[in-house]
């Protein structure tokens, strides 16, 4: 996917056009993230669960793949939810008590 952005053209857009362009870019980023997640799950779980080539999967391999995918997706969802909560807290002003982007525990 080509994300080459012409800043000169971007500056000439109306606010509505700019919002639409940003929305489109966000949707494309979400799609790329989803494609990456699916690819990563398939790769990691296949390597872990399928130990020998064959014409079909054994019941153990099927169960392993299902559990692996479930754990991976649950972990991804938890990390995403936590990250969104942190970002929401920062943007609402509650995270402004820190002098830098990273929290200080001193």
TrEMBL record:
Keyword Disulfide bond: yes
Membrane topology summary: Peripheral membrane protein
Superkingdom per UniProt: Eukaryota
Boundaries of every Tim10-like domain copy: 25-82
GO cellular component: mitochondrial inner membrane
Localization in the cell: Mitochondrion inner membrane
Keywords: Chaperone, Disulfide bond, Membrane, Mitochondrion, Mitochondrion inner membrane, Protein transport, Translocation, Transport
Keyword Nucleotide-binding: no
Subunit (UniProt): Heterohexamer.
Role played: Mitochondrial intermembrane chaperone that participates in the import and insertion of some multi-pass transmembrane proteins into the mitochondrial inner membrane. Also required for the transfer of beta-barrel precursors from the TOM complex to the sorting and assembly machinery (SAM complex) of the outer membrane. Acts as a chaperone-like protein that protects the hydrophobic precursors from aggregation and guide them through the mitochondrial intermembrane space.
Comment on protein domains: The twin CX3C motif contains 4 conserved Cys residues that form 2 disulfide bonds in the mitochondrial intermembrane space.
Protein name per its UniProtKB record: Mitochondrial import inner membrane translocase subunit
Lineage summary: Eukaryota, Metazoa, Ecdysozoa, Nematoda, Chromadorea
